[in-house]
Amino acid sequence: MPQTVRIALDAMGGDFGPKVTIAGAASALERRPNSRFLLIGDEPAIRAELERHPRLAERADVRHSSVSIRMDDKPSQALRYGRRVSSMWLAIDAVKKGDADVAVSAGNTGALMAMAKICLHTMARVDRPALACLWPTLRGQSVVLDVGASMGANASHLVDLAIMGAAMARVMLGVERPTVGLLNVGAEEIKGIEEVKAASTMLRDLALPGFDYRGFVEGDGIGQGAVDVVVTEGFTGNIALKTAEGTAAQITAYVKEAMGGTLIAKLGYLLALGAFRQLRAKMDTRATNGGVFLGLQGIVIKSHGGADSVGFARAVEIGHEVAGSDLLNRIRDTVALAHSLEGQDGAVSTSPPREAAQ
Fold first, then answer.
1. How confident is the model at residue 3 (pLDDT cuts 50, 70, 90)?
2. Could you tell me the residue range of the domain that residue 24 belongs to?
3. Do 79 and 161 belong together in one domain?
4. 48-58 burial string, b = 16+ CB within 10 Å, else e?
5. Contact, 184 vs 203, CB < 8 A?
């Protein structure tokens, strides 16, 4: 890991802008003191927030941009007015120019992916980036991808996702040989759409080094921690992610309602307060906030747009961890090996991914 990790922030991204991004960066700095920040966005607004965080002000430079990407714009719209001038673009460009080791944004996901792909470019033989996240499970955490970078995937792209997810698991989970599964409607080999079945056959035949392919995983296997890496295409992955977040919020509301219903229930809550705090911590989605764009020639982290400063700080810390790793070289080397083996086997990919990021 470099002595100092340089982090470029799109300070205007997300639902709350500098109020959250600057406070989040200040919290991350307390836990990652070898960080240095490049804060990009409306300078007066950023400096007003920095007055509340003098330690961060000492470890940060400010770069002005008067253009912010709106959360509801299509990627093509965002590119028309934000390319080369917006706070989002300039954060990514700082990575390209070597002014930063990682860029972090809570802004529009589709715009972020489009700008990152144009500015940084994808790795050789990687069709498109993927968005990977850490997912809390009964065994600890798993890596799940793609959770929304693009819709649709052919077999070859799913193999690339498996390779990239395994590399991230080695870095983020510390598992030297992670287990990998393909998300499917059943565990049996005869089930599922043709692209997923073809990807399963390729992964078994290639027997790539660095991970252990375990076959299909059903939806309930994600939370159980059936494998270290769950692979799916972005449309399904994003639905799964949003469903899990909604379910966590639903259960939290049920528990809160039940514990406040009667005097006995309130007393029981007080007696079990420690256990409820543990439960709340495990279900707190802020603890795993921060998706990693994989397959690019640089590191870009996507925070949830509605994250508060606690959640945004976690996204910054994930960026710090990834920037200090050898993730890009691990992905690059294994993707090259996989495609060389595909060529030897004469494997042919089926229909290509269909659409750009949402």
1. confident
2. 1-123+295-324
3. no
4. ebbeebeebbe
5. no
Query: 277 and 137, same structural domain?
Result: yes
CA–CA distance, 13 with 33 (Å, rounded to integer): 23
Tokens of 327: 């993730």
Backbone angles phi, psi at 304, to 5 degrees: -60, 135
On the CB side of 239, how many CA atoms lie within 13 Å of its CA?
7
- Per the CB < 8 A criterion, the answer to whether 11 and 296 are in contact is no
Judgement on whether residues 111 and 139 belong to the same structural domain of the protein = no
| Last residue of one domain, picked from the residues 260, 287, 314 | 287
* 314, two tokens: 């976690």
Answer yes or no: do 138 and 215 share one domain. yes
Length of the chain: 358
Question: CATH no. for residue 301?
Answer: 3.40.718.10
Residue 20 parent element (H or E)? helix 18-31
Closest to 334 measured CA to CA, from 131, 165, 143 = 165
Return the H-helix or E-strand segment holding 35: strand 35-41
Residues 85 and 234 in one domain: no
Considering the domain architecture, whether residues 131 and 110 belong to the same structural domain is answered as no
Average pLDDT over residues 86-106: 97
State whether 189 and 276 are in the same domain.
Answer: yes
The predicted model gives 266-294 an average pLDDT of 85
How many domains is the chain partitioned into structurally?
2
| Chain mean pLDDT for the chain | 90
Q: Is residue 111 within 8 Å of residue 73, measured between CB atoms?
A: yes
What tokens were used for 249?
């919020």
In a domain, 353, yes or no: no
CB atoms within 10 A of CB 190: 6
CA distance 134 to 23: 23
Q: Does the CA dihedral 19-20-24-25 come out positive or negative? A: negative
Given a cut of 50, whether residue 347 has pLDDT beyond it is no
Q: Positive or negative CA dihedral for 124, 127, 133, 136? A: negative
- d(CA 313, CA 24) in angstroms, rounded, equals 4
Using CA atoms, how far apart are residues 145 and 158, in angstroms rounded to an integer?
10
Asked if the structure places residue 87 within a domain, the reply is yes
Q: Are residue 141 and residue 258 in the same domain, yes or no?
A: yes
Q: Which residue bears the tokens 């499917």?
A: 184
